[in-house]
Amino acid sequence: MRKIAFILLATVLLIAIFASFSGCARYIFLDDSFDEPDLMQSASFEESSGNAEKLTGFGDWNPKEKTGAYMIARWDSPQTFNTVIIEENGSKVMRFDMQYLDKNGEWQEFYRSDKIEKHRLCAFAPVTTTALRLNITDAKKAPSIKNMEVYNAAPKQLENDFRVVAYYRFDGDTPSEILKKSEEEIRVYAKYFVVITHVIIFGCTAWDTQGNILYDVGNGSSIENEADFATELEAFRKILSYRENQTDIKITTTVHNPSDYESATADSLENYGEKIVNNIFDMVQKFNLDGIDIDWEYPANNKEWKIYDEFINNMIDKLETEKSRDLTYSSALSHWGINLDDDTIKRIDYLNYMGYDAFDDDGYQSAFKSTCIDGLAYLNGLGFDMSQVNLGIPYYGRTYEGDWFWANWRDYEVNWFDNIVPDVEYEIDGVKKVNDCYFNSPQMCYDKTAYAINTGVGGVMVFRLACDKLPDDPNCLTMAIGKAVKDRIA
C-alpha cells in the first residue's frame, strides 16, 4: 500500500510540476457550428459496408475495409454546399477524397486530403449535386467515422477586419533586388500584399546582451548595418505602391533576443531591461513602424517566464506613451509551455501562434488537428481571446523524421490538394538523403483560413513569404488564403 501511495503521490507531483510550467492550460475546443441546416439530415445513404445512416443519428459508420471504403449521401433534389465536416474516432484514415455526381451520372472529384481525426473542416467552392461520395483511399486499419455534416455556409459577418500576417525577411526576397525587375514583375510580386494586411520584418533586428539594437539584412549583425535596414525598408514600402489597391498595411519588426549563451536573454533583461525597452521604442519611432513583435524561443523556466512577463508589460506601457498612433505589441509563441500571467495575456495585441514545426504521431508537420484543433484549444484554455490570435501556417515542408531541413513550397512541382511532396532530396552534415516532406497545400491553407474565420480566430499568420510561389502561380499559398477570405467573409 505504501508503494502504491508513493507512486500516486509522485504522479500527482509530476502533473503539478508540468502544469506549472505549461501555464495550467485547459483544452477548450472552439465552436465550429453553423446557422445553416445540416444537409446530411435529409439524405439517404449507400455504403460499401457498415451502416452510414448512423452518421446522422447515434452511432458510427464502421466500414469493414481498411481501404476502398465509401459512403454515398443522396438527395431527392439538387443541393448546393461548400463545407463538409468529418469526425473520426481515433486516427486511422490517412487519405480520403470526395466526389459529386454530375449531370451525366459521372463521379467528379472536388476535394482530397490526408487525415480526418477528431475534427476535419473541408471548405471549397460551392458544389451543386444530388449525390456526395466520401472515399477512404488509405487507412492504417478499418476506420470508424463518428460524424459527418454538410453545409452551404453563408459568408461570415465579422466585427473586426480579418488579419493576414506575413513574416518577411530582407535576405529572402530582397526588396532592393525586386525593384530591379521589370514593372510587370514588380506588380505581380505586389499582389501578395493585396491579400496580406500585416507584415512583420523578421531576422533583421535584435538586442544584444548590453541592450543595444543590432541590424542584420544578411551580412552580419552590427549597429553599423542600420543604414542597410533603412534602405531595404524604404524599398519594401515602394513595392507596396505597385499594388492594385492601396489599403493600409501595418509594418512591424521582430526584435530578437540575444542567443550568445543559454541565459543571455534573461540576464540582459534583468540588467538592461529599461534600456532595451527604450531602444526598441526609439527604433519604432525612427522607422515609423506600427509596433513590434518578440520571438523569444523559449523561456526555460518559471523565473524566465516571469522576466518575460515583466518585459512585455514594460514594453506595452512604453508603446502606449505614443498618443498620435496605435502601436501594437505581439509575441510569437507555440501551443505548449506558455506561462504568462493572465493579465499580461489580455494586454497582448496579437499572439502569432507558431502552428508549425509541430509533428504528430505520423510525423506530419502542422496537420489540421494538431494545429487548428489541439493548438487553438490550448490557447483558448490559457485565456487568450481568439480575436487576439493569428493562426500560424507554414510555407515550408518538413520530413517525417523531423530532420534539420526546411523545404520551400516555391521550389517544387505541386498541386492544389496534396500536402505531401515525395522524394525530396536534401543534405545534412554532408549526407545526402531522400524523404517525403509534409507541407500545407493551397487546399490546407484554404481550410485553415476558413476554420479560423468560422471559429472567431482573429487572423492567420504565415512563415515565411519567400517560401511561397509567386501570386500568378495557381498554387500560390497566399492567393489560396485570399480566396478563403473572399469566399468566407461578407
Q: Can you lay out the helices and strands and say which pair or pack?
A:
Elements: H1 2-22, E1 44-47, E2 69-88, E3 93-101, E4 107-113, E5 120-139, E6 145-151, E7 163-168, H2 175-178, H3 183-190, H4 192-195, E8 198-207, E9 213-215, H5 226-240, E10 250-256, H6 264-286, E11 291-294, H7 302-319, E12 328-333, H8 342-347, E13 350-353, H9 368-382, E14 389-394, E15 396-399, E16 407-408, E17 420-428, E18 431-438, H10 442-455, E19 459-463, H11 477-488
Helix pairs in contact: 6-7, 10-11
Characterise the protein shown here:
This protein has eleven helices and 19 strands. The protein folds into two domains: 113 residues, Jelly Rolls, CATH 2.60.120.260; 326 residues, Glycosidases (TIM Barrel). The chain is α/β, with parallel strands linked by helices and 490 residues long. The strands form three sheets. It has an eight-stranded parallel barrel, surrounded by four helices. Strands 1, 2, 3, 4, 5 and 6 form a six-stranded antiparallel β-sheet that branches. Helix 10 runs parallel beside helix 11. The N terminus is likely disordered.
Strand order in the sheet with the most strands = 7-8-10-11-12-13-14-19
CATH topology of the largest domain: TIM Barrel
Please, what is the average pLDDT?
92
CATH superfamily of the largest domain: Glycosidases
Q: Report strand %.
A: 25-35%
What structural class do the secondary elements suggest? alpha/beta
**Biggest beta-sheet profile:** 8 strands, parallel, barrel
Helix content: 25-40%
Topology, number of strands: 19
Helix count equals: 11
Elements, N to C (H/E): HEEEEEEEHHHEEHEHEHEHEHEEEEEHEH
CATH class of the largest domain: Alpha Beta
